[in-house]
Predict the 3D structure of the following.
Amino acid sequence: MKRIISILMLCILPVALHAEGESYSDVGTSNWFYDSVESFVEQEYLDASKDKFRPADLALRSEFIKLVVEINGGIIDELPDMPGFSDVSPGDWFFGYMEEAGREEWLKGDGDCYSASRFDSAHRDTDIKCFVRPHSNISRAEAAVIVRRAFGKSRLGKAPAFSDNPAGSWFSDAIQAAADHCILKGDDGTRKVRPGDPVNRAEMVTMLYRVDSGGRYPEC
């Protein structure tokens, strides 16, 4: 009898734990990143079959590149037999995204090492190592550089300089271009953008959501 009652209780439990209009149980309408996440779910850039979005988790380089490629129209070219990066394999879920980003020169690997012609099946040099670190977290500076390459965002000279974005660094122009286009806004009440800090998943989606918003400083 107890077994029957337990089964009946399970049957009447609610199937969905999400509030109406919410795709993930950990993303609510009061969250500052809600619109960004819901927009990406609607466009199928994010997997709505998952229960949680994990907004506070640090974003991986592979996750960031996947979204960049999807926003640009997805994987267009035929995938090569051999990977162009030493730490990416054809069986990896992100293989196609990394190859697409490499061929488009949005992603270059450590030391700008990527070259599709060097890594095809006919010309592969096994002594060449080219690492892209797909499982590593992506920094705010790295994200800004990739956004600039992938979406052609140039500096407008409108946004004020950040105090922790030194002129002449490999990322300074990309950071300021992102600020000019309202993609990066810096911390509230400060002139700091923290270029070396890792991007979390909420920040990742919000940055890329802003890419197509057409915003320009100071109308952010």
